[in-house]
Structures are given as C-alpha cells and as structure tokens.
Write the structure tokens for this entry.
Amino acid sequence: MTDWGLWVEFFIRVATTGFVVIFIAWSAARLGPAIGGVLAGLPIVLAPGFFFLVRDQDPLFVSDMAAGALFSMVATQAFLFAYIWSSPKAGPVGATALAIAAWFIFAVPFSLVSHHLVLGVLTFVAVTLLTRLVGRRLVLPLAPIATPTRWAALIVRGIAAGILVGVVTLLSPMLGPALAGALLGFPIGFCVILLSLNLDHGSTIAGRTAYAGLLGVVSLAAFSCVLSVALMVVAPWPAYLCALTASFGLTALMAQLTRQLAQGAKLRPL
C-alpha cells in the first residue's frame, strides 16, 4: 500500500469510529442513563478496530488480540466503578482522570500475563457482579433534565476516539497481540460519552449512565469472546459477523429488559 493510500485508510478509520462514538453519546443523552449505558456497551471502538485487523492480520493473531481485549474489559469495569464513585465530587475531568488511572492499574498487569479465554470470562463475570452490587449504593436516585448537547466539543472528543483506534490498528503488528488488544480495549468510547454527559448534563446522569454501562460492557465482552473462539474454527469474516451478531443481539436484549423493568417500576403502586 502506498503512503497516500495508508493515510486515506487511516482517516477512514478515524472518521467511522468518531461518527459512531458521537452518535452513541448523543443517544445516551436522549434516551436516558439506563438505556444509554447499555447502548454505550456496543462495540463502537472494538468493531471498527477489529474490522481492519480481521482484514489485514493473521486470524490467530487477531484471536489472541480479542482474548487480550476481553481481559481489558475487566479493567473497563474498574474504570466505570471508579467513575461512579468519583463523579459526584471530582468533577467531569477529575472523575475521568481517576477512572482512566483505575483502568491502567488493572489493564497493565493483565497485558503482561497469558490470556487464557476461560480465565478471562470467569474474571470478567466475577468483577461485573461485584461492581454492580457495590455500585448500586453509590449512584444518585434521580437524574436531571437533559440540556442541549454541545456538538462542537462532542465532535472533537469523537475524533480523538477515532484517532486512538486508527493508531492502534495500524501499529498492532509492532505492539503484539497482548498490548494491542489491551489498548484497543481502552474505554475511549466511555471516556467520550461520560465526559460529554457530565459536562453537558451533569454528574448525576453521567454516574447513572456509568452504572448502566457496567451491564453494557457485557456486550463488549461477548464480542471479544465470540471473535476469539470463532476465529479458531471458521473463516475470518464469518467469525467477525458472529461476534457482531452476539454483541448487538445481547445489547438489544438488555435494552429491552431495561425498558420493561423501568415501565414496571412506574406502574408499581407507591
């Protein structure tokens, strides 16, 4: 590929990822924190990133990266829990910084160990249950009325997310599957979405979205797990489609259950 073609492809990766991140952030603000948090768990960064990896890299390499991304999802739960805990008192930037620090505390050690898929699944399930249980006590009971979205700032944040995906996918052969998988699993989508919600709509709705995101990340874990396994038994593109189907199907199911629970709570007599 020529240098010109490489740059064109890089900008396509940045634009497509940025657009999806911006759309999900806007949807989270419009649909409320419970649904927004579940939608934020869609593979808005993983799917574009792995699309180019599946196309360009050896299936075994991509399978190892997907397993590494699954371990990174454990760190994402730590990121979200730290955000829930700190958002009422640390402010938008402070809460984001503390959440990122929590992610690195977990992600760096995980990137240095062997990524056994079963161990990754068991660890993710245990951490998800724990953070949901404890996090329930930290979220504030009511969310404020949404205010207008600051589109210029949101677009800048979306472009930043796209640049991360573009850089990691282009450098993945040099980084190796473990480190590249961890970096691709960095919750840049959640960073953009939660920071935007906090700045534009307040810490309460951002914190409640982060709490719902603990459930939404299950969709990301499903994508990573299915892709890692499927790449070892079927051709790359059917494996990728299986991972997408599992992720989007699980998100749709969780969104429907969340909506039904919310409706049931409204109808329950006081």
Summary: The first helix runs from residue 3 to 31. The CA atoms of residues 72 and 186 lie 7 Å apart.
